[in-house]
Amino acid sequence: MLLLIAVVQDQDVNRLLTALLEKGYRATKLASTGGFLRQGNTTLLIGVQEEQAEEVNSIIKGICRTRKGLVSPMTAVDQTLNTYIPTPVEVEVGGATVFTLKVESFEKF
Amino acid sequence: MLLLIAVVQDQDVNRLLTALLEKGYRATKLASTGGFLRQGNTTLLIGVQEEQAEEVNSIIKGICRTRKGLVSPMTAVDQTLNTYIPTPVEVEVGGATVFTLKVESFEKF
Amino acid sequence: MLLLIAVVQDQDVNRLLTALLEKGYRATKLASTGGFLRQGNTTLLIGVQEEQAEEVNSIIKGICRTRKGLVSPMTAVDQTLNTYIPTPVEVEVGGATVFTLKVESFEKF
Ligand code: NI
Ligand code: NI
Ligand code: NI
């Protein structure tokens, strides 16, 4: 048995949990924040059999991998412009870090 | 040394921590929620010696194992009845999942 | 690769994260509380290479180790004294517990 500890962005969590559940995988969510730069992440604990690890990693990758996204930079509004229309800016969103640990024993009570 | 990662129901946490402390075991509580169905759980980190793992697992089992409990289904109140008296319903409560991991090294500063 | 799970006091977290970042280490913060006596702690997940573990442990030790600190016991104010001046009391502060786990595999998406 393996324990996957996956740190993912908050914005991807619900889609990831849905995708995992569709394949029969359950996850425990831990509230977490990035140390400095990566605010708003969630840490998931997912217990899987050795032969399931590849599928779970591929589900995580499919949903959470770093990709381009558009955000409207509302915080940068220039107060002198009455007719400010934010131009969406392309940024990197998503990303996931997955640590896989060997489980010595697993109990369910 | 071993690290036990125990996911237990919120309702069982205080009794479990008391029982662990009585035997000299300390735990760190992580705020957690079930992925979908099992809301309101807590994840405990418990560092133990190899020879203590069985006792700790047995304490967790004794307090947290899945069992029958009665709940009053107040959310199902029929608005048309003035004299609604909820009938307690038997449900499964509790349950615990424990991952045991081998610790390469342990430091206390 | 190794995963360090460090439980540290809340008061030391920001200085620790700054010191880790200066050396290029990133950490994920999990909200945590001590079981009973050690309120206000934070659990950090830090992924490192084998050869970095000693340095990271030494950074944690340098910042978080148990030491003497002064606190003003404002909660013990005697209401009958108009001119109460709290005498700072020396207490133990800080402290850290670090579990080092071997990582089977590590993925970044
Ligand atoms: Ni978060
Ligand atoms: Ni909870
Ligand atoms: Ni805290």
Automatic annotation (TrEMBL), chains A, B, C:
Q: Which UniProt keywords apply?
A: Receptor
**KW tRNA processing (keyword) present:** no
InterPro entries reported in the protein's UniProt record:
CdAMP_rec (IPR010375), N-reg_PII-like_a/b (IPR011322), N-reg_PII/ATP_PRibTrfase_C (IPR015867)
Please verify whether the record's keywords include Aminoacyl-tRNA synthetase: no
Domain of life from the UniProt record? Bacteria
Q: What is this protein called?
A: Cyclic-di-AMP receptor
